[in-house]
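Why this split exists: single-chain examples teach little about how molecules sit against one another. For that reason, every record in the complexes split bundles all components of an assembly together and asks for one structure covering all of them. Below is a record exactly as it appears in the raw files.
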Amino acid sequence: MIILKYLLLIFLGVTAYLAISFKEILISIIFLSIFSIVLTALYLIHNAPDVALAEAVIGAGLNTAIFMTVISQIRADEDCHCRKDD
Amino acid sequence: MSRLKHISIVIILAFLGLIMLLDLNKIPNQFEYANSIYHHITNNAVGETGSLNFVTAILYDYRAYDSMGESTIIFGAVSGIVLLLSRKTLPVSSHGLSFIVKRTYGMLTPFIFLFSVYIIAHGHLSPGGGFQGGVILGAISIIFSIVYGSEFDYKRYTPTTKTLLETSGALLFIGIGLIGIIYSGSFLSNLNILNSEPGSLLSAGSIPFINLGIGFKIGAGLAIIFYSMIQKTFKEEASL
C-alpha cells in the first residue's frame, strides 16, 4: 500500500506538471481531470471517503464539464470576431 | 532570463515545501491530549448526535452554523452570476449528440438520480452527504444540456423551478435552525425527531433533513450557474 501511495504521489506531480506545460487548453483540462482522479485515489487511501467523493464529483466531473463549456464559448466568440473582420 | 526565472521558481517552491514539511511535523499528535476534541468526538458523537458518519455529525450538528455560512456563500455566488450573466432569451443550442448517446444517457439517468438520492439520504450512515449528492443532482442537469442540447432541459426544468428548489432547500435549513430555538433554546440544535437507534435510516434527529435541504440547494444552485453561463453564448449565436 505504501508503494502505491508514493507511486500515486509521483503521478500526481507528473499530471500537475503536464497540465501546465501544454499550449492547447483542451489537453490541460483533460490532465486536470486525471489529476483529480489520482487525488481521489489518494484521499481514499488516506481514509477520507467523504472528501474523495466530493473530489471525484466536483474535480473530475463538474469542473471538466464547466471548463469544456467555457472553452467552447470562447472559441465560438473568437470565430464570431473573425467572421466580422472578414 | 527565462532560465533564471525557471530556476528561481523551482528554488522558491522547494523552500516552501521544506517549510510546509517542518510545519506538518510540529502539528501535535491527536492522541496526545486526553481531553482533545478527537477523543470527545470518537467517544461521544454517536451518543450525542446518533450519526454514524462523524464527518456529517461535525458538519451538520457540531458545526452546523459554519455549514450555513458556506451555503450562504454559494447562494451569493449563484445570485451574482445570475445577475451578471442571465438573459431573458431562450437558449437555442445545437441538437446535442448522436441518437446512441441520447438513448444511453436516457436509460442511465434514473440510476444516477437514485445514486444521488442515496448519497443524500444516507449522509449520516455512509460517506457522502448533502453536498456530494447535490452536486450529482446538478450534474444530471448539466449532462442533459450537453447530450440533448440546452433547450431540452431548459423547457422541462425552468429557472423558476430551479430557484424555487434552491430557496426551499435554504429555507428548510434555516427553518430547522429556527425550530431549534423554540425546541431547545439554541440555533440549529439537534431536534431528535423521528429518532430510532443509530444505524437506521430515520436516526440522527435533524441531520437527514438538513442533508436534504443542502442537497436540493446545491444541486439547483449549480444547475442555475451552468445554465446562466451558457445562455449568453447561445443568444450571441442566434444573433449571427
